Predict the structure of Protein sax-3.
Amino acid sequence: PIISWYLDGNPVINSERINTTDNGTLVIHDLDKNTDQGLYTCVASSRSGKATWSAYLRLEPPTNPNINFFRAPEASAFPSAPGKPQIVNVTDNSISISWLPSIKSGASDINGYLIEVFSTDMAKGWIPIPYKISSTSYTFSPVTSDIAYTFIVRAENDQGVGIPSLMSDPVTIGRDINHGEDINLSEAQATLSSGSVVNLLEANASDSTSVRLVWEIVNGQYVEGFYIYSKNVNSNGTYKTLTVLHGGGASACTINGLDKYTEYEFFLVPFYKTIEGRPSNSRTAKTLEDVPSAAPINMEAVLLNTSAVYLKWEPPTNHSLNGKLKNYHIIIRGYDVHNMSKVLTNMTVDGDSPKLLLANLSAGVTYSVSIAASTRVGIGPFSVPSILRLDPLTKRLDQ
């Protein structure tokens, strides 16, 4: 779709302060009450139609005693998407749908569901049902013959409305329906949403980027495969999914491409055709340690006297450390008048002490310092050499 933004009905123009990202997000820097306050409307349009959503942005100084300011909830505070809406019954003047509840309720209990419907005769795009649904089923009416209808569902909690479900399959009133298939889908819906279908038995790290899952199928009558959900436990990001077909009696899978030395949560959702079942229990596993993928950063050199320099630095970022920091490895090189280097010393310091005193330095000699971090697995890359030289005339440190 094409994403367009409007402020009080006028198109938002990109500038040095305002820009729209590739995914359609509007970003405004250095907010100005005189120019940025107002009603914002986002319009997503395609050949199939358009959909809009509006919200009012009010700007007030944080010192205003008449306003109760609060931090916007994190994405994880909202409910996850409900299951894909399933068409469970169609009559001449109504369509009945049902869906599985959201897997994650967020920071508070789910208090209802919001439904939107799109049809090929609606010029306004997606139309919200004007009230909240407390159950996981709904009958939409009236409907018109030879018109295709599609539904999405969102869950709501005290923090707000979560992301939408997948779109239902379009259903057209007046078209022949395969009632035999509908019966199978209804039975599958009942089987997969009641009781335990699959138990996740094990989640064990295979190496620094993969985890092997083992599960047991309790009732496989209506199981074509599984959606495997994985998420970094310490991240606010969304779940990633992998589809595994049940053909051949699959009961294990290795999840690759994970971050190193990172704890993940896993669970399975069985499916049959378009029907998703009750999620399995969840298990966590932490990928194994590896060598750091980046060097220490922000090295500083402080001249103490005419022959000594104090060095300090910071460890690699947590994302690139890939394990528990064990040691730092420092290589000091000296350069002669022909710019030929020679290793003067190769030392190791404890990972809790990112500092080093270099003594007995000679004025006029050029030195280089490279530092690497290590975990229990091994040593990571060395930093780009930092050049040090004590000027024999000024007695100052050149870097």
Summary: The radius of gyration is 30 Å. The longest strand covers residues 148-157. DSSP finds three helices and 30 strands in the chain. The domain at 297-398 is CATH 2.60.40.10 (Immunoglobulin-like).
